Amino acid sequence: MVALDQAAIIYDPSGFAEPPSLDWFQSPPGKSGADRRGRGAVYYLATAAGAAVLRRYRRGGLMARLGTDRYLWLGAEVTRPFREFRLTAALYRAGLPVPQPLAAAYWRSGMTYQAALMTKRIDRAETLAERWRRAPAAIDWAALGGLIARFHALGICHADLNAHNILLDSAGRAYLIDFDRGRWRALDAIWPAQNLARLHRSLCKIGAGQPETLVAPAAWAALESAWRSQLLHPASIGEGAR
Asked: Which of 40-44, 148-152, 206-210 shows the lowest per-residue confidence on average (mean pLDDT)?
């Protein structure tokens, strides 16, 4: 960790010989793009570690009324970027399909802080929502179910599992992204099913209730069946992650 005046940066030394400048997090120099969750923007950067994505932390919903990008300061180790960086790094080291975390930073102002996270960009990837709109027949729903189960079987609870937080690359390989507020949990019968239900609701929301745009029952059944099977037989959880 690099401690600065009212700020700090953590980074992966395998990607950066020197820590990236705090300016990169506060005023990203790259190309801006629409945030996958509709809150603010992500930035596409060319860095010493390769093509990267920088995401500024922003609030959504009712909490945005308290400030769209400021969070209560409770200490460096519980800041959102540091927690997400460390969780994602642990998943990446375990061979799970997540973007490689490159760096994270926070900067304080009084009793609040702002923050951003930088991850390696997955080449030629699009969200599940985008792939579904563009080429629904190309989606392997059973593979998606198995992917989600691999995380669940290890006790990884994604706080916002939706169609915008699953990426598919040009070969159809799937990745989970955005582990803000994600955490390890003891496996039970409740929260994994709630995670899956959250994904189904997001797909229905994208479809706006139109029959021709909803996920076919057979497709969702294939996802659920593979998810259940992987949870019951998790021996291959660490295999073939990337």
From this structure: 206-210
Domain extent for 108: 2-120
186: DSSP letter? -
Does 242 reside within a domain?
A: no
Q: What is the dihedral of CA 158, 49, 126, 174, to 10 degrees?
A: -50
Please identify which residue in the block is written with the tokens 């706006």.
Answer: 208
- Domain of 149, CATH number, reads 1.10.510.10
Token pair for residue 43? Answer: 């930035």
Q: Is residue 191 part of a domain?
A: yes
Q: Which residues are annotated as catalytic?
A: 160
Q: Which of 120, 145, 180 is a domain's end point?
A: 120
Contacts of residue 46, defined as CB under 8 A and 6 or more positions apart, other chains included, come to 30, 52
What does the block give as tokens for 111? 């009793």
Q: What confidence score (pLDDT) does residue 115 get?
A: 96
Alpha helices in 121-172 (DSSP H): 128-134, 141-153
Place of tokens 């973007």: 99
Q: Is residue 11 part of a domain?
A: yes
The average pLDDT across 150-169 equals: 95
Contacts of 214 (CB under 8 A, 6+ apart): 203, 204, 207
Per-residue pLDDT reduced to its tens digit, 74-127: 999 999 999 999 999 999 999 999 999 999 999 999 999 999 999 999 999 999
Q: Taking residues 26-45, report their average pLDDT.
A: 74
**Amino acid letter at 170?**
S
146 with 230, same domain: the answer is yes
C-alpha separations of 48 from 12, 159, 186, 235, 242 in Å: 12, 31, 38, 37, 22
